[in-house]
Amino acid sequence: MLCDVDDASAGTAGQTAGVRWKLAEPGRQLDANVVGLPPGAVVDTHTEPELDVLVLVVAGEGELSSGDTTEPLAAGALCWLPRASSRRLAAGPQGLSYVTVHARRPGMRIGRGPAGRREA
């Protein structure tokens, strides 16, 4: 058992937008988060250049915009956001909670790159 999604996604009203839970187990190949948006909050238009992302709505309602398309979201909606696609999420009047899953991003490393340059 990793997380009780109902507990992690409950009560977005009065809270700031953000991650309520994240997968942190060592050796994993996935990243996953439970994200909560209070009523009216927006995740502005952005693009994930390298990773496909699955979004599963677990509570509340809202909208997902990608390109020229806007889809209503409600609990149970499962969306695939292909890499390089733009997306915008907006919470409805009850707020919006969702799970994201994608391949794990490699951690930042500080070391020496080609020709002895430092990399972060």
Shape: globular
CATH architecture name: Sandwich
The total count of strands amounts to 9
Work out the radius of gyration: 16 Å
Helix share of residues?
Answer: under 10%
Overall pLDDT metric: 85
The helix tally amounts to 1
Strand-pairing-aware structural class? mainly beta
Strand content: over 45%
CATH class: Mainly Beta
Biggest sheet character? 7 strands, antiparallel
Span between termini: 34 Å
Low-confidence stretches: none
CATH superfamily: Jelly Rolls
Q: Give me the CATH fold name.
A: Jelly Rolls
Count of structural domains = 1
Helix and strand element order: HEEEEEEEEE
Protein name: Cupin domain-containing protein
InterPro entries: RmlC-like_jellyroll, RmlC_Cupin_sf
SSE topology sketch:
Elements: H1 5-9, E1 18-22, E2 30-37, E3 42-47, E4 53-66, E5 69-74, E6 78-81, E7 86-103, E8 111-112, E9 118-119
Antiparallel strand pairs: 1-2, 2-7, 3-7, 4-5, 4-6, 4-7, 8-9
Index terms:
120 residues; Jelly Rolls; RmlC_Cupin_sf; RmlC-like_jellyroll; Cupin domain-containing protein
Description:
This protein is mainly β and 120 residues long. It has a single domain (5-10, 26-104), classed as Jelly Rolls (Sandwich), CATH 2.60.120. The chain is built from one helix and nine strands, in the order H-E-E-E-E-E-E-E-E-E. Strands 1, 2, 3, 4, 5, 6 and 7 form a seven-stranded antiparallel beta sheet that branches. A two-stranded antiparallel sheet has the order 8-9. The N and C termini lie far apart (34 Å). This is Cupin domain-containing protein.
